[in-house]
Amino acid sequence: MKPEGIEAIFLTTHNWGKSAKFFRALGFALEFETDHNSGQLRNGDGPYLFIAEIPANQPPEAHVVLKLRDEDAFKPEPIVDVVTPFEETHWGTREMTVRDPDGRIWRLQAPAKAGN
C-alpha cells in the first residue's frame, strides 16, 4: 500500500496568533485551538494545516504529512530512508518519518492501531 496523498501540512511558528490570523485571511477556517498555542485550520476539503508555536531560539519548519490507511500494509522500498519507524503520537495517530534523497523530512501518518 502506498500513501493516499497529502493529509496535512505541519508548521511551527514563533507567534501562533499572527500565524492563525494570516491563514484565516487567506480563507482558512479555524477547526480547533489548543491551550498550548497551536491549532488546526482547513480550507475546503483539502489537507488540514496544523500550526504549533515554538520558542524563538528554534527555527520555524514546515513538514508535509502523507496519509496512509494502514501502516501494516506499508512496506517502504529500499530507496526510502526511514528516520523513525511508526510510533504513537500524542494526538492519537501513528507516525513514521522518512528522508528523501535531498535530505528533506517527510511524515507518514496512519490511524492509531485498534485498542490504543
From TrEMBL:
Recorded superkingdom: Bacteria
InterPro entries on file: Glyas_Bleomycin-R_OHBP_Dase
Protein name as annotated: Glyoxalase
